[in-house]
Design goal:
Elements lengths: L2 H7 L7 H67 L2 H8 L4 H15 L8 E4 L4 E4 L5 E2 L8 H9 L4 E7 L4 E11 L5 E10 H11 L4 E7 L4 E4 L2 H5 L4 H4 L2 H11 L6 E6 L2 E8 L4 E8 L8 H71 L6 H31 L8 E4 H13 L6 E8 L6 E4 L1 H17 L3 E13 L2 E13 L6 H5 L22 H11 L3 E7 L3 E12 L7 H7 L9 H5 L10 E5 L3 H11 L5 E5 L2 H9 L6 E5 L7 H10 L6 E5 L6 H7 L4 E4 L4 H11 L6 H17 L13 H24 L5 H21 L2 H15 L3 H24 L1
Parallel strand pairs: 13-15, 19-20, 19-21, 21-22, 22-23
Antiparallel strand pairs: 1-2, 1-6, 2-3, 4-5, 5-6, 7-8, 7-11, 9-10, 10-11, 12-14, 14-18, 15-16, 16-18, 17-18
Length: 856
């Protein structure tokens, strides 16, 4: 037998049984995935449609509620303002006076266009003639049942009332706002009001949503107050009757709603969303009916195609690379779980450690205020305070390093004032000199741009690390900080910010310099065993500079000192430069700081004959200011707006000092002060401002202020102002007597709210939460509306970010306060696009902070 015959008779190679089973398994798996995936898709699509519609209906009701309430609130404010006009009051007292009648009619006509519906009505209780714009008046009969609004407005409500009526001639439903006109004794003289056409408002809703959605408004009794079919309103049809078997559930659900809450219900044919309108004591309901058209979308075809591709890929994956990727997948899952656990741990530790630590620092500082402490006790509290600050710094460094290494730290660039950056950095670090014989010298180039664009918070962190290290490792000699800037080739809108920090301290060898940026690196442990710190600062500094495209260089020699130079590219926010005056003002920081003991002690001279008025639209700020002035025994009044301050002055009140917030809605502090000065008020007015950069004092003086205090309020500055403008103006004998008595009382029982304790001070927290929630609502509406925005809307947004900046600083959240400052600067620069982009992360952080604070 030949070899060829033997090969010819050799049987064919068969596919291994294991592979055959695997192919069959893959084919079956493919079919199962295809069928199961298609079925799952159909159910998923159904659920997605329901979920999306649920959110869409809730969002629809919330947006329309906000628009309706905002519109009504604006109309109410305008009506109340006109009703409070002296001219209108005079005319309503004497409607027969032709001159008053002419001027009053002119004022009515001028104010008519301020209302959204361009109409205004008024009724005098003397002649009871109903005037609507320029139409012929008619006599109102208060005894007619359909004129119930007349007596209700004048004799039953304290401020205003709202009523609904249906106009059969025009086939529309109107919402009427009635504001009473009262004389000085509160006696009704008549009323002023306007109308909002609900029918047009509802028709606008239907233009934006499909035919499967129905929207109704109804009151607590279940009567429909607004609907597409105005006949339902005219007939006072019940929501129970309109929605058949759904009506009872809708009405019951509405009555169970808390303010601001939205309820969603499902029924076989669709979904229902219910929301309250607290201002009107109404409810709104949106009803969506399911339809097969909801499944008619490109997503269906795309999903089926994707399912086929995924099933095929799954088979190939199982055949060829499943064994290869399984270990990798397991490793990635383990790494991700570990990263999540680390993030959760850091977040928890941050809150759990910072909260008691802030209390420790606050209690230590409060105790150091007492002059009667024994020296041994004072020394203990000083060591507690210093150790607490050190521990807080270590915690911050560890958290920052962890964020950077995990990629969780994000830069938040924005415009900032260079003078504030330098001043804040020096102020923070100069107290580190303590009892050391160190001369601190600051040099600032007057040609630096006045405003730059960058992450101010992180730049301060870099400068703080450099300056604190220089002061920490220098026992005697000189520490010098030089700040300048230079051009960047080809980039006219950027500058190179250069900061040089030099010292005559220990210095380092070349080997030590090469290891300086290693994590936890520290040198000369024998010589520096008493030096506090973790060695994280320079590692964090280098990483932050890399994130900002900056660089750092070091020149050091043992025994002679070190020179650190930072070059950091920054955007230019305007054409102004720092200037000679501001640069020289900053450079006056020259010598070593004061000890904690001297910094902490304040003598609270009693001023019982004194009185002050604090004007601020943020309740948190009012609370803080009152708490800081409490130890002086001074009489304190407050006003939450410029209008409130003017009303107090109009009422004949005078104060030793009026503390006036700078930025307030509607009428800011400068405008309020001008009006008060025009009224002849000549007592001292002191500005409260968070924009206390160089040159601001002149601006306030030019606008009628006597002085200004920056926020967060510095106790020493406040003490100086109170003693200068209140205590020193009392009769000599009286001032001396009250000061001595007050000093004794202060030593015995210095009870007043302290800022450092406010994490656990519930009334303060409650005030802060009210301010924060109000600002969150305003900022959310601003972002959701999108562009374009009016100047007034941007200004209101700036006012709220400004208020949150101060409130957050008072309560201890300096990082979030810095972000609020960036938003404020964006608003001031009218950078609406940047403001809309940067606000959502701030809102999320603010919400998380307030929720944690509320639960604490």
């Amino acid at each position: 037998m030949t070899v060829g015959n033997e090969l010819a008779k050799e049987p064919e190679k068969k596919r291994p049984p294991l592979m055959s089973r695997f192919i069959i398994f893959s084919a079956v798996l493919f079919i199962v995935i295809l069928v199961a995936g298609t079925i799952a898709f159909m159910f998923s699509m159904r659920q997605i449609i329901r979920t999306n519609k649920d959110g869409e209906l809730s969002q629809l009701l919330e947006i329309k509620r906000l628009r309706l309430e905002t519109s009504v609130e604006n109309e109410i404010s305008l009506a109340l303002m006109i009703a409070d006009s002296p001219l209108i009051r005079s005319f309503f007292k004497d409607p027969g006076n032709p001159d008053l009648r002419r001027m009053a009619f002119e004022e009515m006509a001028a104010n008519r266009h301020a209302f959204s519906a361009n109409n205004i009505f008024w009724v005098n209780d003397i002649d009871r003639l109903f005037h609507l714009n320029d139409d012929d008046p008619y006599l109102v009969d208060p005894e007619r049942p359909d004129n119930y609004w007349y007596r209700m407005t004048l004799y039953e409500n304290e401020a205003y009332n709202i009523n609904i009526n249906y106009n059969p001639d025009l086939n529309v439903t109107n919402l009427w706002i009635n504001a009473p006109v009262l004389d000085a004794d509160g006696k009704p003289l008549g009323m002023i009001g306007t109308g909002i056409e609900l029918t047009a408002f509802i028709e606008m809703i239907y233009k934006d949503y499909n035919k499967n959605t129905e929207v109704y408004f109804f009151n607590a009794a279940g009567e429909i107050t607004g609907a597409k079919d105005v006949g339902s309103v005219a007939a006072k049809k019940s929501i129970n009757e309109e929605l058949a078997y759904l009506g009872a559930d809708v009405l019951a659900g509405a009555r169970s709603l808390a303010p601001g809450e939205t309820l969603s219900l499902e029924f076989p044919e669709g979904r229902v969303a219910i929301s309250g309108i607290p201002l009107l004591e109404w409810y709104s309901v949106a009803v969506f009916f399911y339809s097969l058209d909801d499944y008619d979308s490109a997503m269906t075809a795309l999903f089926v195609l994707t399912l086929l591709v995924l099933a095929l890929v799954l088979v190939i994956f199982n055949i060829f690379i499943s064994k290869l990727l399984t270990p990798m997948r397991l490793s990635m899952e383990e790494a991700e779980a570990a990263n999540k656990a680390k993030s959760a741990f850091l977040s928890t530790m941050s809150h759990e450690i910072r909260t008691p630590l802030n209390a420790i620092l606050g209690i230590a500082e409060i105790q150091l205020q007492k002059e009667s402490l024994e020296q041994s006790v004072r020394d203990g509290f000083e060591k507690m305070f210093v150790s607490g600050e050190l521990l807080l710094g270590i915690i911050n460094d560890i958290l920052d390093l962890s964020k950077i290494e995990s990629g969780k730290l994000e830069l938040i660039p924005g415009p900032y004032e260079v003078a504030s950056l330098i001043g804040d950095t020096v102020q923070l670090n100069i107290i580190r000199i303590g009892s050391k014989t160190i001369e601190f010298i600051l040099r600032v180039d007057e040609n630096i741009p006045a405003r730059l664009v960058g992450d101010e918070l992180r730049i301060k962190q870099i400068l703080n690390n450099l300056l604190s290290n220089a002061l920490k490792y220098t026992e005697k000699g000189t520490v010098r900080m030089t700040v300048s800037s230079g051009e960047i080739d080809g980039k006219d809108e950027e500058t190179m910010l250069a900061v040089e920090v030099s010292d005559t301290g220990q210095g380092m060898t070349k080997e030590q310099v090469s290891r300086l940026f290693d994590t936890y690196a520290r040198f000369n442990m024998e010589a520096n065993r008493k030096t506090e710190g973790t060695g994280l600062g320079m590692s964090i500094t280098q990483k932050l500079l890399r994130m900002m495209n900056g660089e750092i260089s070091i020149d050091s020699e043992p025994g002679k000192g070190s020179v650190f130079t930072v070059l950091l590219p920054q955007g230019i926010a305007g054409p102004d430069i720092l200037g000679k005056e501001v640069a020289e003002s900053l450079c006056r920081f020259r010598t070593g700081g004061r000890s904690l003991k001297k910094r902490a002690q304040i003598k609270y001279d009693q001023m019982p004959e004194g009185s002050v008025l604090i004007v601020d639209d943020v309740e948190t700020n009012l609370y803080v200011a009152k708490g800081l002035m409490g130890p002086y025994g001074i009489t304190i009044d407050t006003a939450d707006s410029g209008y409130g301050a003017i009303e107090r002055i109009k009422g004949g009140k005078t104060y030793d000092i009026v503390f006036m917030d700078h930025m307030m809605p509607n009428m800011d502090g400068i405008e309020t002060t001008k009006i008060m000065r025009e009224m002849g008020y000549d007592k001292p007015i002191v500005a409260l401002t968070a924009n206390a950069v160089a040159g601001q004092a002149d601006m306030f003086i030019r606008n009628g202020f006597n002085d200004f205090i920056s926020k967060p309020i510095d106790r020493r500055h406040l003490d100086d102002v109170l003693k200068r403008l209140v205590r020193d103006k009392q009769p000599a004998g009286e001032a001396k007597e009250t000061a001595a008595a007050g000093h004794s009382a202060a030593e015995e029982k210095p009870e007043f709210p302290d800022i450092a304790r406010n994490w656990t001070h519930r009334r303060y927290v409650e005030a802060f939460l009210r301010d924060a929630n109000r600002s969150i609502a305003v900022l959310e509406e601003f972002v959701q509306r999108g562009e374009p925005h009016s100047e007034e809307e941007v200004r209101i947004c700036v006012v709220h970010t400004h208020g949150m900046k101060s409130a957050l600083a008072y309560i201890g959240n300096k990082e979030l306060s810095a972000v609020a400052l960036k938003l404020e600067v964006l608003g001031r620069d009218n950078d609406v696009e940047g403001l809309i982009a940067e606000t959502p992360p701030f809102l999320n952080a603010l919400k998380a902070f307030t929720e944690g604070l509320a639960e604490a």
